[in-house]
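Note to self: keep these together.
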Amino acid sequence: MADISPTIVELDPQQAVAVRGNVAVNDMPRFFERAFVACFKAAGEAGIDIAGPPFGFYPGMPGETVVIEAGFPVSAPIAEMGDVHPLELPGGKAVEVIHVGPFEAMKETYAALQTWMAEKGLQPAAGMWEIYLTDPQTEPDQSKWQTKIVWPISS
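Structure:
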């Protein structure tokens, strides 16, 4: 099991810009690349500032495919532009943990996080997201990649 140090936080809702997809796991890297480029371009064209690192929002548990909203937090709401649409990341209580390592190893961090929440009597809510703190294009060493996992909890 992954060694994790989760924290419980209170989040404010965050305006974002995103592209939605229902994607096979093998197609996720291409989807993220396309979505991030489209969101960055749309925000620039709208004169809206990017307000943080890219994210992948997962409205439900994955099955054979994964429903993903991939994009960036922004400084103000944005109008829909083609595949790009406004999104609000939810506020409220959540558990955060930093995963260090390759994306493929995140399932271990998720399992450890679920165990930790169960031990604390916390009910995970639908709609968790990952914030990609490390850019794989600038840091080739996957063992150094950092991803913040944010999982809202039910009251």
